[in-house]
Amino acid sequence: MRSNFVFQEIWVGLRRNLTMTMALIVVVAISLSLLGTGLLFVKQVDRTRTYWQSQVEISVYLCYKGDINPNCHGAITPQQQQQLVTTLTSMSQVENVTYVSQAEAYTLFKSAMSNEQSLVSTVTASELPPSLEIKLRNPSADYQIVSSAVQGRAGIDSVIDEMTILQKFYNLLNGLRNAVIVVALILVVAAVLLVANTIRLSAFNRRRETGIMRLVGASNFYIQLPFLLEGVIAGLFGWVIAAALLIGVKSLLLNNLQQYFSYNVGLSAGDLIEVIVLAMVIGVALCGVTAFVTLRRYLRV
Amino acid sequence: MIEFQNVTKVYPNQNRAALENVDLTVNKGEFVFLVGPSGSGKSSFLRLILREERPNEGRILVAGNDLARLTNWKVPALRRKIGCVFQDFRLLPSKTVEQNVGFALEVIGKPRRFIKRVVPEVLDLVGLEGKHDRMPDQLSGGEQQRVAMARAFVNRPMILLADEPTGNIDPATSIGIMKVLDRINRTGTTVVMATHDAAIVDSMRKRVIELEYGKVVRDQNRGIYGQAY
């Protein structure tokens, strides 16, 4: 095996159809980075979902004096409240029930809205509903059962289950992820066709050389290796660009998104590296396999 | 060295056989002329030996290999035992004379030191002293054919196939080409040469196999080209 000969051939091949090679690199780079972005999204959504699902609570807002909700007829009576708490605590799905009074609700409101002093100043403690915060044993499975058990009872203003709110956010993220992956897959198809075409052109450009190689008894491996590596090297170049783009996506897009959440559900460097390595495997496999299949058709013994 | 046993070759979508029931043996060290009009099957004969084509019927033995039993991945090993020269030379225009010949060794994985030693020897053998660094387009047709012969012979093949090697060359220069082929033959290499050149065949007085419409119509030792042409 003469490695410098092979590399010389690769270099000649890449240079001879430079425009084609560049197009190939760009398409591979974009498709891999979109694919990687899709994978990062999948990870981000999973991470967020797992975190929130463990945190999810059901808030039962209780009627209070001056409540304008038509379901309410004055403040909830102590008996009604007692009954509600008993029902909830007796359910096996419920871990615990915490009563939040109007005064406590106001303190929480003030701290949550500390940036919006004008809003805080217009709201008083008597305008905020008292609530029962229900912590569930297994939120993702049980929130439906528990929330429907108390829904519509006397003295209840409304039942807010956080799952429905989250669901909208998930739908948005999932939609975004699916769109990215669909575009990436279309580009992957384009990349495959471009690899095939580039290799074919390259083989055609050097048909004189390969013809002689066949005649003097060079092995198939020796004839095909330069073309195969040509595809793989173009794939690797594309991957390097894609890796840079993915680092950008992570540090600019996802990390900025993170600012809007008070909990840490950001992706680690490890996640990023995992996606980048996966992108490399996909990129190299894509180019290598396509080149191999193309060569089997165009460079026969 | 080369044995055809009742070989028939019909190309797809053609009614007439390119070769029909060809049965002959070429011994080691022989020099054979293959003559006949265009389309008589000379090129098919050579392509079958190289296993670029496979026969529809019959058996072909080349250098001890039964070509029907030869797997695809063993074909390169067969071709290393066979050198080829063509009418159109088939040199690489971007490489020098020395690189063109070295290429044949390079692509079968020979070490660089070996190539450096062997290539000049072969170039001198075919009569290209002092022209090792020329580009093919700086050479005359005869000289280009000598480069092609050097490339075919550099790996010391057992068989040399020549498909009208003098077809593009004037008669005076052709004599030089034939001398080189004769010299290669004297090293023990079996030479099979397809040709239209009556003067050369008549002057060499070697074995002549004449093909017509894919059939062997004459096989004659120390023969001539034939009266009909």
Q: How would you describe this structure in keywords?
A:
heterodimer; A: 301 residues; alpha+beta; Alpha-Beta Plaits; 2 domains; four-stranded antiparallel sheet; 10 helices; 4 strands; 72% helix; B: 229 residues; alpha/beta; Rossmann fold; six-stranded mixed sheet; 24% strand
Instruction: Report the β-strand fraction of chain A as a percent range.
Output: 5-15%
**How many separate domains make up the residues of chain A?**
2
| Helix-residue proportion of chain A | over 70%
Q: Output the structural class of chain A.
A: alpha+beta
Helix/strand layout:
The complex is a heterodimer of chains A (301) and B (229).
Chain A: H1 3-16, H2 18-55, E1 57-62, H3 78-90, E2 94-100, H4 102-112, H5 117-122, E3 131-136, H6 139-150, E4 156-161, H7 162-205, H8 207-215, H9 220-258, H10 269-298
Antiparallel strand pairs in A: 1-3, 1-4, 2-3
Helix pairs in contact in A: 1-9, 2-7, 2-9, 2-10, 7-9, 7-10, 9-10
Chain B: E1 2-9, E2 19-26, E3 31-35, H1 42-49, E4 57-62, E5 65-66, H2 75-79, E6 82-86, H3 97-106, H4 112-125, H5 141-153, E7 159-163, H6 171-186, E8 190-194, H7 198-204, E9 207-212, E10 215-220
Parallel strand pairs in B: 3-8, 3-9, 6-7, 7-8
Antiparallel strand pairs in B: 1-2, 1-4, 4-5, 9-10
